[in-house]
Amino acid sequence: MDNQRALASPATLTGSTLHTGENVTITILPAPAGHGFKFQRTDLPDEPVVDAHASHVKTVERATTLVQGTVKIHTVEHVISALSGLGVDNALIRMDANEPPIGDGSAAAYVDMILKAGIVEQDAQRVYFDVVEPMTVEVGGSLVLILPDKKFRISCTQVGPEGRFTQFLSAEITPEFYEKELAPARTFVFYEDVKPLMDKGLIKGGSLENAIVARGESVLSKEPLRFPDEFVRHKMLDIVGDLALCGRRLRAHVVAVKPGHGINTEAAKRLASRHAEIVAVAPRPLAAKPGAMDINQIMNVLPHRFPFLMVDRIIEFQGDTKIVGVKAISINEQYFQGHFPGHPVMPGVLQLEAMAQVASIVMMRKTENEGKIGYFMSADGVKFRKPVMPGDTLFIECELTSVKKRLGKASCQCLVNGELVSEAQLLFGLVDK
Question: Does domain 3-281 have CATH number 3.30.230.20?
Answer without folding.
Answer: yes
